[in-house]
Amino acid sequence: MKKFSLLLIAALFAFGMNAQEVQNVSNGTVYLKDKASDHWYIGLGGGTNIYTTKAENDADASFGDRLGWMGQIEIGRWNSPVWGTRLVIDGGHIKHVANVPVGAEQNWLGGHLDIMWSLTDALGGYKPGRVWNLAPYAGVGYMYGLDADWKKPNPDGDLFKNQNQSLTYNLGLINNFRLSRSVSLFLELGWRVLQETFDGSGIQGDFEYDGMFTGTAGLKFGLGGKQEFTPAELMDYNLINDLNSQINRLRAENENLRKRPESCPDCPEVAPAVTESVYVPNVVFFRINSYKIDKGQQVSVYNTAEYMKANPNATVKIVAYADRQTGTPAYNLALSEKRAKAVANALTNEYGIDSSRISIDWKGDTEQPYAENDWNRVAIFFAE
User: Fold this and answer.
1) CA–CA separation, 119 vs 112, rounded Å?
2) Is residue 308 predicted with pLDDT exceeding 50?
3) Which of 132, 175, 307, 328 has its CA 20 to 30 A from that of 116?
4) Can you say whether residue 211 is alpha, beta or left, with left for phi > 0 and alpha for psi between -120 and 50 degrees?
5) What domains can be seen in the chain, in order of their start residue?
C-alpha cells in the first residue's frame, strides 16, 4: 500500500509539471500559452476537524467534544481553466473520544499534494469574472502524530521509527469566492483516510482505517503573475483579405500611372501641375489582449512607410483602440496606448521614418470604430 501511495504522489507531481508545458484547452477552446510564473497563488486558512474511529463509544460522543482545531498554508497553480495542482502544509489538534494510548488529545503535522478540478468551469465554461467556483480535489499526503505538548509520543524511539504516523488519502470540495483579480475567499470541506495506528490503537483494534473530517476557511492571493486565461481567438481573415485587396488595387493603379508617357509631342505644352499621392488610411489589427504586430499585419506598416518616403512632407497620425470585451476601461486604455506606440516604433525603427512626422493617440474602448467587437482591436493610420 505504501508503494502504491508513493507511486501516486510521483504521478501527481509529474502531472503538475507536465501541465505547465502543454497548451491550455478547455471545452474545445484553445487558450494562449502563458509563462511558467503565471497562475500561481498562496493560501492561508484555519478551521476545525473531527477524528473518527470505529470504536463503540465514538458514535455516541457529542459533536462539541470531538471538535479540534487546525491551520493550513498552501501554494498552487491552475495549469488550465479546469485543472490545477497544489501542495498543502497543515497541522492541528485532535480530540479523541475513544480510549486510545495517546490520550484524549493529540497534535499533528502533515501535508498533502492534490489535483484540483474546476467543476463550474468544466461544465459552465470558463468565465474569469465568475464570483463562485466549486473545485473538487483528490490527493495523497502524510500525517505525523505528536502528543499534547507537541512532542513525539515515543520519546525513546528515533524521529520516525515506532512513532504515530500515516500516509493519507485526501478528498474534498473547495468553494472559491472571487473578491478581486488576485484575492479570493475560500471555504473547504475535506475528508482524509489514514491508518488506525495513527492514534496508537492499531494493536488493539480489528479495523484498518480511521478518518478525519476537516473544514477550513481563509484567503488566497495571486503571486504577482497573470491570474486569468486568455482565449486564442483567430483574426477575421475575410476583413484582412478585403483590406489587402484594396491595398493591392491601389498599388496596381499607381504602377499603371508610372507607365504613362512622360510627354505628349502632339499636345501643346502646359504648365506642370504639382500633385501629391493620395493616401488611403491603413489599419493594423491585433489579437485579443496583445499589442504585438503580427506578420500578416506588417503590410499596412510597410505601405504607410512607403507613402511617407514618397512624400517627404507628409505626416501621419496613429489612433489605437481596444474592444470592450478585453478588460476594464482603464485596462483597455493602457492597452490601446501600447498598440499605438508599437506601430509608431515599427515605422521609426524598421523603416527609418523620423518620429517628428508621427503623432499618436489612443482611445481604449471609449470609441469603437467598427460595429463588430473583435475588429476594434486595431490601430488606424490617418494622413495629416
Assistant:
1) 21
2) yes
3) 328
4) beta
5) 2-222 (2.40.160.20), 237-253+277-383 (3.30.1330.60)
